[in-house]
Amino acid sequence: VLESAPKVPGRPRHKTREVAVGDKVFGGANPVWVQSMTTTDTFDVEGTVEQIKKLEEAGCELVRVTVPKPEDAGALGEIRKRIGIPLICDIHFDYKMALAALDHPIDKIRINPGNIGGYDRFRQVVRKAKAKGIPMRVGVNAGSLEKELVEKYGFPCPPAIVESALRSIEVAESEGYDQIVVSLKSSDVLVAVESYRLFAQLADYPTHIGITEAGKPPYAVTKSSAGLAPILLDGIGDTIRISLLGDPVPEIAAAFDILQATQRRVRRPELIACPTCGRLAIDLEKIIAELEQRLEGRRLPVKISVLGCVVNGPGEAREADIGIAAGNGKGMIFRNGEIVRRVDEAEIVDALMEEVARWEIENADR
Ligand code: SF4
């Protein structure tokens, strides 16, 4: 078993077709895009644009707004004009609102097939989306699954959720429309994970991943990570949203952290630090705080290990791109597994930053 096990961890990305949403292409080898949703009344153009700008500043790459009323649809054109990221409309219950939203310059529409009132209505929305060239998310949600499927399977289990998505896809395809992204959300982590895995076995449409109604941070972030990490590690997921109660801005950092930790989208240095214990030989907390501050804004995926003593320090430092192993108020600096210098504790941060600068020059085209 050991000899046949893969030495290099990580499953390849699930192969999906590509669907363009504004200037972002979902699926294929494209990045797993980070998106969020506003909490404002969409018809309040000023408030909505203000919140979207804050999301953009935080790194949000696509934004969704709710469109429950005609005045919300009427605000879409103005909002779209004033923001720099693709605009997605979220529709529940009223297919007429979907038809109204499609009259405006939106980049994608999200439909919940379980609450739109049947496939005839869904078909009308598909026809209009096709005519306008606008992609659609088929957003299945365990909490609002078609009654017939709940009865067939007994409860909103993964096969019921996936069958809902496949049925909608079939209807859309029968209309010659395939600009589809799929989500299979549940507030139950196990149901969500198995739904995405099952869907990936049966279809090659890109997926929007998320754990719905995760609640209030910090538990909501942990719960989302528990659900999204297995999905991402299986190579599934083409766009991600972390659903947090309240202000959506913290959703963005949480999404990028999950993508970084699962190595699906590494966008900044990875800092490896030990938790410290009674063997600690340097002021590790101070060093890490200073390093975090000085690494802020750097984009290269360098792995930096800073450990507090010689127990695991040299081993971790050798495995990282840059590392330090501390002992007796001094630090041994490693680069690419080799010891390059020894410095006093007070010089550790400067020495590490010099090595980071060197590493960036050597790896500029990575
Ligand atoms: Fe403790 Fe050393 Fe391990 Fe850090 S590396 S937790 S100081 S034993």
In the CATH hierarchy, the architecture of the largest domain is Alpha-Beta Barrel
Mean of pLDDT:
94
Number of helices: 12
Number of domains: 2
Distance between the termini: 34 Å
Residue fraction in strands: 15-25%
Pathway: Isoprenoid biosynthesis; isopentenyl diphosphate biosynthesis via DXP pathway; isopentenyl diphosphate from 1-deoxy-D-xylulose 5-phosphate: step 5/6
Cofactor: [4Fe-4S] cluster
Protein name: 4-hydroxy-3-methylbut-2-en-1-yl diphosphate synthase (flavodoxin)
InterPro entries: Dihydropteroate_synth-like_sf, IspG_bac, IspG_bac-typ, IspG_C, IspG_TIM, NO2/SO3_Rdtase_4Fe4S_sf
Q: Brief overview, please?
A:
This protein has helices at 45-58, 70-82, 95-101, 119-132, 147-153, 158-174, 189-202, 219-233, 249-261, 284-295, 313-319, 348-362, and strands at 19-21, 24-26, 33-37, 62-66, 87-91, 108-111, 136-141, 180-185, 208-209, 239-240, 270-273, 303-307, 322-327, 330-335, 338-344. The chain is α/β, with parallel strands linked by helices. The two termini are 34 Å apart.
